[in-house]
Amino acid sequence: MGWRKVIIGFGLVLVVGAVLTTSVVRNSMADWRTASRESAGIAPDPEIDTEAIVQVYSARAYSWRGTFGVHTWIAVKPSNAPRFDVYEVIGWRVMHGGQSLVISQRPADGRWFGNAPEIIAELRGKGVDDIIKRVDAAARSYPYMNDYRVWPGPNSNTFTAHVARAIPELKLDLPPTAIGKDFIPGGALTAASPSGTGYQVSLLGLLGVMVGVEEGLEVNLLGLTFGVDPMDMTLKLPVAGRVGFSSP
Questions:
Q1: Quick one: CA torsion of 91, 26, 223, 100, rounded to 10 degrees?
Q2: Which pLDDT does position 245 carry in this prediction?
Q3: For residue 97, what are the domain limits?
Q4: Rounded Cα distance, 225 and 208, in Å
Q5: Whole-prediction pTM
Q6: 47 in a domain, yes or no?
Q7: What is the pLDDT of residue 66?
Q8: Which of 235, 211, 121 is nearest to 169 (CA)?
Q9: Which end of the chain is more exposed for a tag (fewer CB within 10 A), N or C?
Q10: CA distance 116 to 61
Q11: Does 199 fall in a domain?
Q12: CA 208/CA 200 separation, integer angstroms
Protein backbone atom coordinates (compact mmCIF):
# COMPACT_ATOMS: atom_id res chain seq x y z
CA MET A 1 0.00 0.00 0.00
CA GLY A 2 2.86 2.37 0.81
CA TRP A 3 4.48 1.93 -2.60
CA ARG A 4 1.12 2.38 -4.31
CA LYS A 5 0.67 5.76 -2.61
CA VAL A 6 4.18 6.78 -3.64
CA ILE A 7 3.51 5.81 -7.28
CA ILE A 8 0.15 7.64 -7.30
CA GLY A 9 1.74 10.72 -5.74
CA PHE A 10 4.59 10.66 -8.25
CA GLY A 11 2.08 10.34 -11.07
CA LEU A 12 0.14 13.36 -9.84
CA VAL A 13 3.36 15.38 -9.69
CA LEU A 14 4.13 14.40 -13.31
CA VAL A 15 0.64 15.39 -14.45
CA VAL A 16 0.77 18.76 -12.69
CA GLY A 17 4.26 19.33 -14.05
CA ALA A 18 3.14 18.53 -17.58
CA VAL A 19 0.18 20.91 -17.32
CA LEU A 20 2.37 23.73 -16.04
CA THR A 21 5.04 23.09 -18.67
CA THR A 22 2.46 23.07 -21.46
CA SER A 23 1.00 26.32 -20.18
CA VAL A 24 4.42 27.95 -19.97
CA VAL A 25 5.37 26.89 -23.49
CA ARG A 26 2.01 27.96 -24.95
CA ASN A 27 2.13 31.37 -23.30
CA SER A 28 5.78 31.91 -24.20
CA MET A 29 5.02 31.28 -27.88
CA ALA A 30 2.25 33.90 -27.97
CA ASP A 31 3.12 36.98 -30.03
CA TRP A 32 2.45 40.17 -28.08
CA ARG A 33 2.14 42.13 -31.35
CA THR A 34 -0.92 40.17 -32.45
CA ALA A 35 -2.39 39.25 -29.04
CA SER A 36 -5.86 40.73 -28.51
CA ARG A 37 -6.29 43.90 -26.45
CA GLU A 38 -9.96 44.24 -27.37
CA SER A 39 -12.84 44.69 -24.95
CA ALA A 40 -14.07 41.55 -23.22
CA GLY A 41 -17.60 43.00 -23.15
CA ILE A 42 -17.97 43.20 -19.36
CA ALA A 43 -17.41 46.92 -18.73
CA PRO A 44 -20.46 49.21 -18.51
CA ASP A 45 -21.31 51.28 -21.59
CA PRO A 46 -20.72 54.96 -20.67
CA GLU A 47 -23.58 55.98 -22.96
CA ILE A 48 -25.97 53.90 -20.88
CA ASP A 49 -24.42 53.96 -17.41
CA THR A 50 -23.92 57.67 -16.82
CA GLU A 51 -23.17 57.33 -13.09
CA ALA A 52 -19.63 57.55 -11.70
CA ILE A 53 -17.84 54.18 -11.68
CA VAL A 54 -14.60 52.77 -10.27
CA GLN A 55 -13.60 49.23 -11.23
CA VAL A 56 -10.55 47.07 -10.53
CA TYR A 57 -9.66 44.39 -13.08
CA SER A 58 -7.40 41.35 -13.00
CA ALA A 59 -6.15 39.19 -15.89
CA ARG A 60 -3.48 36.56 -16.24
CA ALA A 61 -0.13 38.15 -17.08
CA TYR A 62 1.40 37.89 -20.55
CA SER A 63 3.57 34.96 -21.64
CA TRP A 64 4.96 32.44 -19.11
CA ARG A 65 4.31 34.86 -16.26
CA GLY A 66 0.59 34.20 -16.64
CA THR A 67 1.09 30.68 -15.33
CA PHE A 68 2.00 32.09 -11.94
CA GLY A 69 0.51 35.56 -11.69
CA VAL A 70 -1.90 38.25 -12.82
CA HIS A 71 -1.76 41.84 -13.98
CA THR A 72 -4.19 44.25 -12.28
CA TRP A 73 -5.40 47.73 -13.17
CA ILE A 74 -7.96 50.37 -12.17
CA ALA A 75 -10.57 51.94 -14.46
CA VAL A 76 -12.58 55.05 -13.55
CA LYS A 77 -15.43 56.96 -15.20
CA PRO A 78 -16.75 60.21 -13.70
CA SER A 79 -20.44 61.00 -13.94
CA ASN A 80 -21.56 61.57 -17.55
CA ALA A 81 -18.03 60.98 -18.87
CA PRO A 82 -17.90 59.51 -22.42
CA ARG A 83 -15.16 57.01 -21.60
CA PHE A 84 -13.12 55.27 -18.90
CA ASP A 85 -9.62 56.27 -17.85
CA VAL A 86 -7.34 53.33 -17.05
CA TYR A 87 -4.54 53.48 -14.46
CA GLU A 88 -1.88 50.78 -14.51
CA VAL A 89 1.85 50.13 -14.17
CA ILE A 90 3.71 48.57 -17.12
CA GLY A 91 7.25 47.27 -16.68
CA TRP A 92 8.57 47.53 -20.24
CA ARG A 93 8.22 51.32 -20.10
CA VAL A 94 10.81 51.46 -17.31
CA MET A 95 13.16 49.21 -19.30
CA HIS A 96 12.94 51.74 -22.16
CA GLY A 97 13.63 54.76 -19.98
CA GLY A 98 10.04 55.86 -19.30
CA GLN A 99 7.86 55.89 -16.21
CA SER A 100 5.93 52.83 -15.12
CA LEU A 101 2.59 54.58 -14.53
CA VAL A 102 0.33 54.74 -17.57
CA ILE A 103 -2.97 56.63 -17.68
CA SER A 104 -4.81 55.82 -20.89
CA GLN A 105 -8.22 55.51 -22.51
CA ARG A 106 -7.75 51.91 -23.60
CA PRO A 107 -10.83 49.68 -23.09
CA ALA A 108 -11.45 49.36 -19.35
CA ASP A 109 -12.08 45.64 -19.83
CA GLY A 110 -9.50 45.12 -22.56
CA ARG A 111 -7.92 41.69 -22.78
CA TRP A 112 -4.40 41.64 -21.40
CA PHE A 113 -2.52 40.35 -24.44
CA GLY A 114 -5.21 37.77 -25.12
CA ASN A 115 -6.13 36.96 -21.53
CA ALA A 116 -9.68 37.81 -20.48
CA PRO A 117 -10.05 40.05 -17.40
CA GLU A 118 -12.46 39.84 -14.50
CA ILE A 119 -13.83 42.60 -12.28
CA ILE A 120 -12.57 42.12 -8.70
CA ALA A 121 -13.93 45.32 -7.12
CA GLU A 122 -16.41 48.04 -8.05
CA LEU A 123 -17.95 51.27 -6.74
CA ARG A 124 -20.82 53.16 -8.38
CA GLY A 125 -23.07 56.13 -7.87
CA LYS A 126 -23.26 58.84 -5.25
CA GLY A 127 -19.93 60.00 -3.85
CA VAL A 128 -17.85 58.08 -6.38
CA ASP A 129 -16.82 61.24 -8.26
CA ASP A 130 -14.90 62.32 -5.16
CA ILE A 131 -13.38 58.84 -4.86
CA ILE A 132 -12.21 59.08 -8.49
CA LYS A 133 -10.26 62.22 -7.58
CA ARG A 134 -8.64 60.31 -4.72
CA VAL A 135 -7.78 57.43 -7.07
CA ASP A 136 -6.01 59.88 -9.36
CA ALA A 137 -4.09 61.46 -6.46
CA ALA A 138 -3.07 58.07 -5.05
CA ALA A 139 -1.95 56.82 -8.47
CA ARG A 140 0.19 59.89 -9.06
CA SER A 141 1.77 59.48 -5.62
CA TYR A 142 3.00 55.96 -6.44
CA PRO A 143 6.65 56.00 -5.30
CA TYR A 144 8.08 53.59 -7.90
CA MET A 145 7.56 55.46 -11.15
CA ASN A 146 11.09 54.57 -12.27
CA ASP A 147 11.38 51.09 -10.79
CA TYR A 148 9.82 47.76 -11.76
CA ARG A 149 10.53 44.15 -10.85
CA VAL A 150 8.35 41.20 -11.83
CA TRP A 151 9.30 39.48 -8.55
CA PRO A 152 8.86 40.24 -5.69
CA GLY A 153 7.91 43.81 -6.67
CA PRO A 154 7.38 46.65 -7.09
CA ASN A 155 5.16 45.84 -10.06
CA SER A 156 1.61 46.35 -11.35
CA ASN A 157 0.08 44.64 -8.32
CA THR A 158 2.19 46.73 -5.92
CA PHE A 159 0.64 49.77 -7.62
CA THR A 160 -2.93 48.50 -7.34
CA ALA A 161 -2.43 47.65 -3.66
CA HIS A 162 -0.96 51.12 -3.07
CA VAL A 163 -4.03 52.82 -4.55
CA ALA A 164 -6.41 50.44 -2.76
CA ARG A 165 -4.94 51.35 0.64
CA ALA A 166 -5.85 54.98 -0.11
CA ILE A 167 -9.40 53.96 -1.08
CA PRO A 168 -10.63 51.64 1.70
CA GLU A 169 -14.17 52.00 0.32
CA LEU A 170 -13.14 49.54 -2.40
CA LYS A 171 -12.50 46.78 0.17
CA LEU A 172 -10.21 45.27 -2.45
CA ASP A 173 -9.18 41.67 -1.84
CA LEU A 174 -6.46 41.13 -4.44
CA PRO A 175 -6.12 37.60 -5.86
CA PRO A 176 -3.50 35.32 -4.29
CA THR A 177 -1.88 35.25 -7.74
CA ALA A 178 -1.29 39.02 -7.62
CA ILE A 179 2.42 38.62 -6.94
CA GLY A 180 3.84 41.92 -5.72
CA LYS A 181 0.76 42.99 -3.75
CA ASP A 182 2.67 42.35 -0.50
CA PHE A 183 5.58 44.61 -1.43
CA ILE A 184 4.90 47.52 0.94
CA PRO A 185 6.09 50.86 -0.53
CA GLY A 186 8.87 52.70 1.22
CA GLY A 187 10.43 49.55 2.61
CA ALA A 188 7.96 49.59 5.52
CA LEU A 189 7.45 46.39 7.48
CA THR A 190 3.80 47.01 8.32
CA ALA A 191 0.80 48.50 6.55
CA ALA A 192 -2.95 48.30 6.30
CA SER A 193 -4.08 45.41 4.11
CA PRO A 194 -5.11 46.52 0.59
CA SER A 195 -8.77 46.08 1.53
CA GLY A 196 -8.41 48.44 4.48
CA THR A 197 -10.06 45.82 6.70
CA GLY A 198 -6.91 44.44 8.30
CA TYR A 199 -3.14 44.65 8.61
CA GLN A 200 -0.06 43.00 7.21
CA VAL A 201 3.59 42.50 8.05
CA SER A 202 5.89 41.97 5.09
CA LEU A 203 9.64 41.83 4.50
CA LEU A 204 10.15 43.31 1.02
CA GLY A 205 7.30 41.19 -0.34
CA LEU A 206 9.24 37.99 0.32
CA LEU A 207 7.98 36.92 3.73
CA GLY A 208 4.93 38.07 5.62
CA VAL A 209 1.50 37.59 7.12
CA MET A 210 -1.78 39.37 6.39
CA VAL A 211 -5.00 39.26 8.40
CA GLY A 212 -8.16 41.09 7.31
CA VAL A 213 -11.92 40.77 7.23
CA GLU A 214 -11.85 40.72 3.42
CA GLU A 215 -8.57 38.87 2.91
CA GLY A 216 -8.91 36.32 5.70
CA LEU A 217 -5.52 34.89 6.66
CA GLU A 218 -2.65 34.93 4.17
CA VAL A 219 0.95 33.80 4.53
CA ASN A 220 3.48 35.06 1.99
CA LEU A 221 6.48 32.83 1.30
CA LEU A 222 8.95 34.11 -1.30
CA GLY A 223 6.18 36.15 -2.93
CA LEU A 224 3.74 33.22 -3.10
CA THR A 225 0.45 33.43 -1.21
CA PHE A 226 -1.04 30.62 0.87
CA GLY A 227 -4.18 31.35 2.84
CA VAL A 228 -7.78 30.80 3.77
CA ASP A 229 -10.77 33.13 3.44
CA PRO A 230 -13.53 32.07 5.87
CA MET A 231 -15.95 34.67 4.46
CA ASP A 232 -15.90 33.00 1.01
CA MET A 233 -14.98 29.49 2.22
CA THR A 234 -12.00 29.37 -0.13
CA LEU A 235 -8.35 28.44 0.00
CA LYS A 236 -5.79 30.80 -1.52
CA LEU A 237 -2.98 29.07 -3.40
CA PRO A 238 -0.12 29.95 -5.76
CA VAL A 239 -0.79 29.34 -9.49
CA ALA A 240 -4.35 28.08 -8.88
CA GLY A 241 -5.62 31.21 -7.11
CA ARG A 242 -8.85 30.72 -5.15
CA VAL A 243 -10.04 27.16 -4.62
CA GLY A 244 -13.24 26.33 -2.77
CA PHE A 245 -17.00 26.45 -2.64
CA SER A 246 -17.38 30.03 -3.84
CA SER A 247 -15.46 32.99 -5.24
CA PRO A 248 -16.00 36.75 -4.88
A1: 10
A2: 63
A3: 34-244
A4: 9
A5: 0.86
A6: yes
A7: 86
A8: 121
A9: N
A10: 10
A11: yes
A12: 7
